[in-house]
Design a protein that fits this description.
alpha/beta; 36% helix; seven-stranded mixed beta sheet; 7 strands; 8 helices
């Protein structure tokens, strides 16, 4: 798989993958099936990002997670594998075509019983959730112009120790390219605006990580002292 991480050579990416927990056969086949779809496969997260998300889900002790943008299901599978048997993941997507691949592989991976897939605009699905802090982990990786809407719907429902992960925040490095024109790239304009919106939000604290195409890690500005990530 071509490394998505900006500035990382193929050789260094191969070394990185080789020195982490390897991919199981079901995950590798899902990656291969997705890659065979052609250019659209770029929507799939990187292997190391999937491993990071599984580990984070376990560390947080997530009971309810939300994913906005599921595609062929690798990111959802990664989250679901970190969930306990009684925890749930809500996946929001609008494509029955791509998510039909996801459902097949979730079943083979033994995680389909933890996942609820809703085929509808994510803004509508998120609006049906209780106005309470119930989301322990959220992953946003869908249409970029709607990132701020997804973020606002989720942050108000984020649990005290909850985490939001947002993908593609470096947009192949174009966010700092002075020659990249906002007026001709709606996605770039949306990503730049979203990044500025989050860093200015006094409700949250965030760190932008150079994982794959950029992954922003967001928590409440004052995390609970009992958080598994922030307690001493």
């Amino acid at each position: 798989m071509t490394p998505k991480t900006i500035g990382l050579s193929t050789e260094l990416h191969d070394y990185l993958i080789a020195h982490g927990t390897g991919l199981d056969p079901v995950t590798q086949e899902l990656i291969d099936v997705t890659m065979a779809l052609g250019d659209i496969s770029e929507m799939q997260i990187a292997p190391e990002q999937g491993a990071f998300m599984t580990m984070l889900t376990r560390l947080l002790g997530v009971t309810f997670a939300v994913e906005v943008g599921t595609f062929t299901g690798f990111s959802a599978m990664s989250i679901a594998r970190g969930l306990s048997s009684d925890a749930r993941l809500l996946c929001c997507d609008i494509s029955e075509e791509w998510t039909s691949i996801a459902c097949r592989f979730w079943e083979r991976a033994g995680v389909s019983d933890k996942i609820d897939l809703k085929i509808a605009p994510a803004v509508e699905t998120l609006a049906t959730l209780p106005d309470e802090p119930i989301i322990d982990l959220a992953f946003i990786d869908a249409d970029k112009p709607s990132y701020q809407q997804y973020y606002e719907a989720i942050v108000q429902r984020l649990s005290p120790n909850g985490v939001i992960l947002v993908d593609n925040v470096l947009w192949d490095g174009l966010v700092v390219d002075p020659y990249a024109d906002n007026s001709t790239d709606d996605n770039l304009r949306a990503i730049r605006a979203f990044n500025d919106h989050v860093v200015a939000d006094s409700r949250t604290t965030q760190v932008m990580l150079p994982i794959a195409d950029g992954l922003t890690f967001i928590t409440h500005a004052s995390p609970s002292p009992h958080s598994p990530l922030f307690s001493s």
